Amino acid sequence: MKNIISLIFFIAALSVWSFAQEPLRIIAIGAHPDDCDSKFGGTAAMLAKMGHQVKFLALTSGDAGHQSQGGGALGNRRRAEAKEAGKRLGIAEYETLDNHDAELMPTLQVRHQVIRAIRKWNADIVLGLRPNDYHPDHRNAGKVVIDASYMVIVPNVCPDTPPLEKNPVFLYMQDHFQRPYPHIPEISVIIDDVIEKKIDALDAHESQMYEWGPWTNGRSQDKVPKGKAERREWLSKRIKGRTNKSEAVMESLKKWYGEKAARDAKYVESFEIAEYGYQPTEEDIRKMFPMLKIKP
To answer: Is residue 81 within 8 Å of residue 65, measured between CB atoms?
Structure first.
C-alpha cells in the first residue's frame, strides 16, 4: 500500500515538473478587450518573450464602451484594437467573443464557452478577474471563470471538447476593491523592463484610452492630445503615475526578489492564487514565473 501511495505522489510530482519544463500555456480571461492588457500585459509580454504561449480572451465584444459609437461597428473596432495590442505584446493570440458588452451574465452558455476555451488552449495557468468589481461584466466574468475551474477536467461536461488531464493553476488579476476583502498579492512581478511595451499595447486600444476612458472621467476627452506621439506620451504619464506598491505588494516583492529589488521596483503586476484548481508550491511558482529571482 505504501508503494502505491509513493507511486501516486511521484506521478503527480512528475506531471507538475513536466509542465514546468516545457513552454507553459497561459490564458487570461477578461470581460472586455483591454481588461487583460491593463492587469497582465507586462507579465504576459515577459512570459511570451521567454517562449511561453499566452492567450488573451475577452468574453464580450466591447460594443457598448463608447460615448458616440456602438453595436457591431464598435465591436469590430475593438476586436481590431485587441489584435493589434496582442501583436505589440508579442502574445500568441487575442480572441474577442461576440457576447454583448454590459450584458454579460454567468450563464451556463458562457460557462461552456470558457470551459471550451481553457481546454482548447490546454492551459497550465488561467487568469481571471475577481468576482467583486464596479462593473457587472467584470464581476460576472470573474464568477464564470471560477465556475469553470473544476469543470475543465470533467469529461461529461462539454463532451465535444476533450477535458484537461490536470487542473490548471487559477489566479486572480489585481484590483483595488476592498470588500469583501482586498486582493492578496501572493505573486508579484516587477515589469519595469517591459512597461513601455505594456503602454504600447494599451495605446492600441484607442477607443478606450483616448476616447471612452477620458469621457467617463469627467468628460475630459478634450484634454487628450490629437497627435499620435503626443497621445502616447500623455498615456505614458498616466500609466506611470499610478502606483500599486502597497505594503502587501512590497512584502510580496521582498519574498520573490529580495529587499533591494523590491525597494527599487517602479511598476508591478500582482496576482492572487484562487482556492480552486491546482494549488502550487513556492517551487512551482518560481518555475511558472521564472522572472521571480532573488537579486543581490
So the answer is: no
| Domains recognised in the chain with CATH numbers | 22-175+183-288 (3.40.50.10320)
Phi, psi of 125 (to 5 degrees): -130, 135
For residue 179 the three cell numbers come to 470588500
Per residue in 12-46, pLDDT tens? 444 444 445 689 999 999 999 999 999 999 999 99
DSSP 291: T
Closest by CA position to 75, among listed 56, 94, 57, 97: 97
The residue to which cell 478577474 is assigned: 129
pLDDT of residue 22: 87
Q: What is the tens place of the pLDDT at every residue in 149-171?
A: 999 999 999 999 999 999 999 99
Largest CA distance in the chain: 73
182/177 Cα distance (integer angstroms): 6
Q: What is the pLDDT of residue 153?
A: 98
